[in-house]
Amino acid sequence: MARRSWRNFDYLLLLGLMLLAVYGVVMIYSATINTLGLDDPVQRQALFVAGGLAILLLTASVDYRLLDIVQHPIAVLAPVVLALGDVILVLSWYSGQASALAEGTSVQLSNLDLAPIVVGVVLVLVVYMLDRTWLEQLDLALQRFLLVVAVMVAAGAAYLLVHRATAGAPASLSPYLLVGGLAVVYLVDCLTLRFTDTLRNPLYVLMLGLLGILFVIGQVSGGAQSWLGAGTVQPSELSKILVIIVLAKYLEDREESGSYIKTIITSLGLVAVPMALIYFQPDLGTALTLGAIWLAMIWMAGIPLRYLIVIFGGGLAALPLIVMNLEEYMQKRLLLFINPNSDPDSYFNVHQALVSIGSGGWTGKGLTHGTQSQLHFLRVRHTDFIFAVTAEELGFLGAIAMLGLIFFLLWRMLRIAARAQDTFGRLLVAGVAGLIFFQSAINIGMNLGLMPVTGIPLPFVSYGGSSFLTLIIGVGLVESVAMRHRKLEFD
């Protein structure tokens, strides 16, 4: 059976990937030659390619359907995660109070009032027991609606009573209001969307744990607190693959439900939580990538076009509000994209990229002979702006060859998705293809001045280990689906 599976391995996809990776190594060599301060990036990238090939083959050899098994729901995980959320809320509140009293003051466990934490945990457990013994069995929508109204009215009345009795809710009651509010949200969710059911997925909880721990022990690099283990692991990159796997499982389970609105809202919430954690690192580019993955996968899941149009319209309507609440440096990048003259110094590198691309002509100036790249006018040329180096040194034809390889990979993936034997496999492939397409479009658009600068690398070409190996794992999953696209045969 194993030998028969390897016959279905997509060797053309592997060949295209290796050609693109070698293309990247060559361009990294040209972009970094005679550049001081870099620790032999060509050798490191070559090692990434060699190691990535081994990881791809290993991933492909594992049946992708095992990813369904490791996501077997554990009911108790939801209250555990929410109870931990109570702890984080209370600790964050005390930390804010300490900072307000004296700058640099830290929260000491011995000085904490643990009563709010205990109350919060008890409330979460009470809601969990109610859900298990009663709420899950409620079938009538009217009953659920009336209970939601009753809960909201009771919560609002309780808050008003506390506010009036304490003349504005003194600080000592604020932690109780926080944990009480979380319990109310949990209860309302159990009666409506049941988004908290997603917290029963061990893989999803693991992803949230990895992203959450960054705020405690994460290391800062490039302005973002996104690294673990002395800069060797970047959970936000790994989260791209984990989101694809979790979303594929969720959408497969609800394929026959017929409740499109609930599926859209809950799946969006499922992705929004890791997006928020990544955004606050801050890393806008990776957060947007998760959103693009979600959009590609719900489209492949068969959500009717009218719902997608509504989502697109809602996104456009909310865009001004989103922009107003972005970090200041993110707003400056958007303003620079709209009006380059607002900050000529910051626009310098985009201008140099356009000069590089425009001066390459049809066949380019020759490898290692680019003016903008070799004279170091173009910055971060081996990562974010490697496409500009390619267009300058290999010309329009060289850039088209690179694009051709990327689209060849996407075509092979879509072909595998069409032949997948189940919805889970088809959605896995769609997520990986959406990831590669989005990163390619944003990076190349950024080089051409058609997109704001976001720091998203060009797949398999830009220098970097975390992004490259993450995408390699994704392609390994695609190959795993390709190897098992036919139904099992019994001898």
Explain what the structure shows.
This protein is mostly helical and 491 residues long. The protein is 69% helix and 1% strand. It has helices at 2-7, 11-32, 41-61, 66-69, 77-101, 115-133, 141-165, 174-191, 202-217, 235-253, 260-279, 284-300, 305-324, 328-338, 344-359, 371-374, 386-419, 423-447, 465-483, and strands at residues 219-221, 224-227.
Topology:
Layout lengths: L1 H6 L3 H22 L8 H21 L4 H4 L7 H25 L13 H19 L7 H25 L8 H18 L10 H16 L1 E3 L2 E4 L7 H19 L6 H20 L4 H17 L4 H20 L3 H11 L5 H16 L11 H4 L11 H34 L3 H25 L17 H19 L8
Antiparallel strand pairs: 1-2
- Mean pLDDT across all amino acids: 87
Q: Give the end-to-end Cα distance, rounded to a whole number of Å.
A: 10 Å
Radius of gyration: 25 Å
Strand line-up of the largest beta sheet? 1-2
Give the count of helical stretches: 19
Instruction: Please tell me what the overall shape is.
Output: globular
**Model regions low in confidence, pLDDT < 50 over at least 5 residues:** none
Helix-and-strand structural type: mainly alpha
Task: Please tag this protein with its features.
single chain; 491 residues; mainly alpha; two-stranded antiparallel ribbon; 19 helices; 1% strand
